[in-house]
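Task: sequence in, structure out. Protein: DUF4124 domain-containing protein.
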Amino acid sequence: MKALRLTLLALACSAPLLAAAQSWVWVDETGRKVFSDTAPPPSVTANRIIRQPGQRRSVNEAQAQSTPVAAATAAAPAASAASAPRLTGKDAALEEKKKQAQAAEAEKKKADEAGVAQLKEENCKRARAGKNDLSSGMRVARTNAKGEPVVMDDAAKKAEIKVLDEVIARDCKPA
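Result:
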């Protein structure tokens, strides 16, 4: 019975050691240690892996790598640190989509401005033609709400010319 207890005690004490032997330890991009029972992602280079299953370490190595900064320094020599991907905080695909969206927005705005300029030019031509007709001295007739022709008197012509002058001032480019 005593032998059985000693055996169970020995197994209980060695279980954490067996579990630790089957775990992975690596340093992530931010310099923190990551402990896992699965392999690190492919983005983690081999020089940042501190421990993997089946690997034995010496006590000095374990003490030297007990802090994240020391682990990162020991695991990544200066030459490989230069080749490690730089974290800029920007996603290249997202930046490209933003640029495309800005370019599309600028193109749409330019097309809208061109449409507005064309409408102003047409308004300008019509306003000038209307002003010439009203200023010619000829009698001008308009159609009222009932569809009947009504001849404009001088006061109505002046009021209409005033409105056309405002349209010309607003929509016509200075010559």
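The longest strand covers residues 24-27.
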